């Protein structure tokens, strides 16, 4: 293996361990992997793309977490389904590790809501007595979107799980269901999630 590819593979393997063992998202895991390996980001030290990192995460889970991860994933998907039903009017779609099947008990749940009015979600949460925090992240078309974060108890895990609600425009839904480079869907609605949950893990 060329040395550049070997370095990228080492970064991916280290980042995968951080994703699984510490619950980091992919971006921060890659940056911390660089530091852990004593590397600086430059032309020689190419960061793995998300597909490469996901492959490493799946390998790590299969090797070290095969006896626990499927049940933890199912618990998080059950919780996601509960909240998608609660927020049905906002066309929720699940994405991230819980959708892709690589989540563990340390993973957050990421839901994307497609609303005509971003404030309507906040009003719905207030009416349901749900405490939340407001943040922001980069969204489609290079614009910032609101992210509402809340903590929900997961009965099967017996602990609190963070749920992030990304508030997107209704028009964004049209392009949201396009498959990724590998032909996989990056998100799914409640019906799609329930179909996934019927597949043995």
Concise summary:
This protein is 45% helix and 20% strand. With 201 residues, it is an alpha+beta fold.
Account of the 3D structure:
The protein has a 6-stranded mixed β-sheet. It is built from 8 helices and 6 strands; from the N terminus they run H-H-H-H-E-H-E-H-E-E-E-H-E-H. It has helices at residues 3-22, 26-36, 50-64, 69-86, 96-100, 118-127, 173-176, 190-197, and strands spanning 93-95, 109-115, 133-138, 144-154, 159-169, 187-188. The chain starts with a helix and ends with a helix. It has 2 domains: 3-64, no CATH class; 69-197, Beta Polymerase, domain 2. It is α+β, with helices and mostly antiparallel strands and 201 residues long. The model has no long low-confidence stretch (mean pLDDT 91).
Largest sheet: 6 strands, mixed
Order of helices and strands: HHHHEHEHEEEHEH
Write down the CATH class of the largest domain: Alpha Beta
How much is the radius of gyration in Å? Answer: 18 Å
Major sheet strand order: 3-4-5-2-1-6
**CATH superfamily caption of the largest domain:** Beta Polymerase, domain 2
Give the total of beta strands.
6
Number of helices: 8
Chart the SSEs and their pairings.
Elements: H1 3-22, H2 26-36, H3 50-64, H4 69-86, E1 93-95, H5 96-100, E2 109-115, H6 118-127, E3 133-138, E4 144-154, E5 159-169, H7 173-176, E6 187-188, H8 190-197
Parallel strand pairs: 2-5
Antiparallel strand pairs: 1-2, 1-6, 3-4, 4-5
Task: From the structure above, extract its key features.
201 residues, alpha+beta, Beta Polymerase, domain 2, 6-stranded mixed beta sheet
């Amino acid at each position: 293996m060329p040395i550049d590819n070997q370095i990228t593979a080492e970064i991916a393997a280290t980042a995968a361990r951080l994703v699984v063992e510490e619950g980091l998202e992919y971006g921060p895991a890659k940056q911390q992997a660089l530091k852990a390996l004593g590397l600086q980001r430059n032309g020689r030290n190419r960061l793995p793309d998300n597909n490469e990192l996901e492959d490493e995460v799946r390998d790590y889970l299969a090797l070290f977490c095969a006896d626990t991860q499927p049940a933890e994933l199912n618990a998080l998907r059950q919780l996601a389904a509960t909240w998608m039903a609660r927020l049905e009017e906002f066309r929720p779609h699940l994405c991230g590790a819980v959708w892709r099947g690589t989540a563990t008990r340390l993973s957050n749940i990421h839901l994307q809501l497609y609303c005509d009015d971003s404030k309507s979600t906040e009003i719905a949460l207030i009416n349901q007595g749900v405490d939340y925090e407001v943040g922001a992240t980069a969204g489609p078309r290079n614009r910032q979107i609101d992210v509402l974060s809340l903590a929900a108890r997961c009965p099967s895990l017996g602990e609190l799980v963070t749920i992030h609600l990304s508030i997107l425009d209704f028009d964004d839904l049209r392009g949201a269901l396009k498959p990724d480079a590998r032909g996989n869907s990056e998100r799914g609605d409640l019906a799609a999630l329930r179909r996934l949950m019927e597949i043995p893990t």
